[in-house]
């Protein structure tokens, strides 16, 4: 009798667990009109697209941020001269891949029917461009045997002071107030917005279809901050829209789900147009920070159909008081223990010779060299360096000389 009662209790518990799991799964799939993608991406022929590991294993990349592309003159001549210098700097420093800002503020450093022209090129967002910056940058990169990856900030519209003026025909004219998040004086596309997601995806498709890019990269900007207040109204709307029997996701789970839908849709869209174009993400080095702003690195690295590579920004040295380089790298290796996604490492050349991290970057000039050597011993061979201007910075000159010896 006792055994029978115990068995019945176990059976009842199992049924309850199954029901809860079913309801949770239903609610998860109901949280947005945008349906989650399958775990595998397919090209236009319906063929599975494998991760092209060979294309990222030996990346020697450098980020080219929007600040490095803007000139005082804002002319075609000055822009091209500026980019030619960037090409020369890259070639002189063993770089084989440029990761170039092409959409920093929901704008376009290219000819677009979706986004306004960038103030970086014209001086004023939305002003007419008399040449195509992206075509020129890609052509020049390929002529010089450099790969070109388009760097996109998917959600950012503006910060408090950049750009100084938004175009009347920009994304704000295409979105409603609930499609926008505001934080610290800036505006961002709400990751929970269906219209916002479509705008971002269509923008990526436009670039991949019209330009010969070798890759697309998102950086570490997803939700603008960890504070739950910034999207509290949006989260409440999600919960109120659920059926009564649904168990809502936590706000962090919900954030990650919203971003995951975008990431998987972008990946599948790219592969459907050009399966050889790689898609990667460069998140923050601190994994907990990533998760709080919706960057679900565990899913991206464990499930096919999200990214071709991951490149955490491990912008610390071995002397960092909280998370030194080797500790942070180990956290990423542990997170990717059973992953087939290649791991690259983002390095902080911009800190060389500075007072960052309690002045420890002033104490040594072989920090990046030791980090590269350490990574290679861990069978990590892909590196991206932030950023291009610091190859010509006097404070970083010795650091550059030393790291070039091992790149």
Shape: globular
Q: Could you name the CATH class?
A: Alpha Beta
Biggest sheet strand line-up: 9-8-7-3-2-1-11-10
CATH architecture: Alpha-Beta Barrel
β-strand percent reads: 5-15%
Total separate domains = 1
| Average residue-wise pLDDT | 90
- The total beta strand count reads 11
Provide the low-confidence segments as ranges.
Answer: 1-48
Query: How many separate helices?
Result: 13
How many strands, what sense, and barrel or not for the largest sheet?
8 strands, parallel
Helix content: 25-40%
What oligomeric state is this? single chain
Query: What is the CATH topology descriptor?
Result: TIM Barrel
CATH level 4 superfamily: Glycosidases
> C-alpha Rg, in Å?
23 Å
Tell me the span between the first and last alpha carbons: 72 Å
SSE class: alpha/beta
Secondary-structure element string: HEHEHHEEEEHEHHEHHEHEHHEH
Which keywords apply here?
three-stranded antiparallel β-sheet; alpha/beta; eight-stranded parallel β-sheet; globular; 407 residues; 38% helix; disordered N terminus; single chain; TIM Barrel
